[in-house]
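Hypothesis: this fold can be encoded by more than one sequence.
Test: take the structure tokens below, design a sequence, compare later.
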């Protein structure tokens, strides 16, 4: 049994990824999906899912009343079947509605139990490495049960393995990928991010357009487990690389008013080998022209977490709405924001609002369908057709 986590709001898209990889008996909960699979399916999901954050393998589960019950569960788990004492470990615990007083103490007891199990069988124990462990053990404690998992991913799956440069408040890659999916964008359709920051939307779209698996250029924790099937993984990885398309223009466009952001985006696209697919330039959204007659715009505009005052927002958003109406007729625009005032301030009526989370920050993905003439006569509004 496995559990894949994801940004809240993207569970249905994650289920689609897992089903495509071969997952069975999918069960969605807030923030993830439980599923059944054999190990090649786990490998495939890690390699290909753009939405998952981590994929965990359940190794033990039992009810508990006190910390000692959790220690006993961890002690009875056959950790030596999964890894050897020479490997390093890290233990993390998440809890929801747990009556236990200290989750840090629970974490310590699970670590003690793992080490005691190895000491009992081998006379030596794994060392702890909190930065780059070979094996990550994840505990989940509910109100009355504890579940122990092995992390098959390692670094979070939104870390594709090539981001070098970041700017303030970047979107995580799997959230950006989810927004692209929710927008209905398909390769060949013009895509534009006029506030591209370090280029997260651009990189994700270019990878999709060129058929690149998001995990093709990174390592995974399952490669360090004792049951790792190297031959199966080699076949999956080679198949993914063989389906990649040649680097070429993909009608993906980006710009940003900040030269620092444009340089960061260029560096990230270059590191990913995706520069030929993207057209990038400096420019202010309030002045930039649409790069095509129609297409999809996606962007993460400034909001309260990224600017110094509400006054700045009040000054920025109305001209933003005017720019969309004047220059982007024929486009469908998607803006993600934690600021619920955005539609009112840009003076546009969204045709759709989708709740999403950027980390712990609750946001909305607003869809605005811009049509020719939407800024003519009477009160400016986006057409809702």
């Amino acid at each position: 049994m496995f559990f894949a986590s994801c940004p809240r709001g993207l569970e249905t898209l994650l289920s689609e990824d897992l089903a495509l990889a071969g997952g069975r008996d999918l069960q969605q909960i807030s923030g993830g999906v439980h599923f059944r699979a054999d190990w090649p399916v786990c490998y495939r999901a890690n390699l290909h899912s753009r939405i998952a954050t981590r994929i965990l393998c359940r190794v033990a589960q039992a009810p508990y009343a006190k910390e000692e019950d959790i220690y006993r569960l961890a002690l009875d788990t056959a950790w030596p079947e999964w890894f050897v004492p020479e490997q390093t470990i890290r233990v993390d615990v998440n809890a929801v509605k747990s009556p236990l007083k200290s989750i840090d103490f629970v974490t310590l007891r699970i670590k003690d139990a793992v080490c005691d199990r190895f000491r009992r069988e081998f006379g030596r124990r794994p060392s702890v490495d909190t930065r780059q462990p070979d094996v990550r053990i994840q505990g989940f404690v509910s109100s009355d049960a504890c579940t122990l998992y092995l992390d098959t991913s390692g670094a979070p799956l939104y870390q594709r393995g090539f981001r070098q440069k970041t700017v303030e408040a970047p979107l995580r890659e799997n959230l950006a990928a989810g927004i692209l999916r929710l927008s209905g964008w398909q390769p060949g359709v013009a895509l534009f991010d006029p506030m591209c920051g370090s280029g997260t939307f651009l990189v994700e779209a270019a990878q999709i357009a060129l058929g690149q698996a998001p995990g093709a250029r990174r390592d995974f924790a399952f490669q360090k487990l004792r049951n790792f099937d190297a031959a199966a993984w080699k076949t999956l990885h080679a198949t993914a690389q063989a389906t990649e398309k040649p680097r070429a223009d993909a009608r993906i466009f980006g710009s940003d008013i900040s030269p620092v952001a444009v340089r960061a985006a260029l560096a990230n696209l270059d590191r990913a080998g995706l520069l030929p697919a993207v057209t990038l330039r400096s420019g202010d959204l309030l002045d930039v022209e649409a790069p095509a007659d129609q297409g999809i715009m996606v962007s993460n505009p400034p909001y309260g977490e990224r600017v110094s005052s509400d006054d700045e927002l009040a000054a920025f958003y109305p001209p933003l709405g005017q720019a969309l109406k004047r220059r982007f007729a024929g486009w469908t625009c998607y803006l993600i924001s934690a600021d619920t005032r955005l539609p009112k301030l840009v003076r546009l009526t969204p045709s759709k609002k989708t709740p999403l989370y950027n980390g712990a920050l609750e946001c909305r993905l607003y869809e605005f369908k811009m049509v020719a003439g939407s800024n003519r006569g009477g009160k400016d509004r986006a057409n809702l057709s």
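The radius of gyration is 23 Å. The chain has two domains: 2-151, 173-211+245-369.
Hypothesis status: open.
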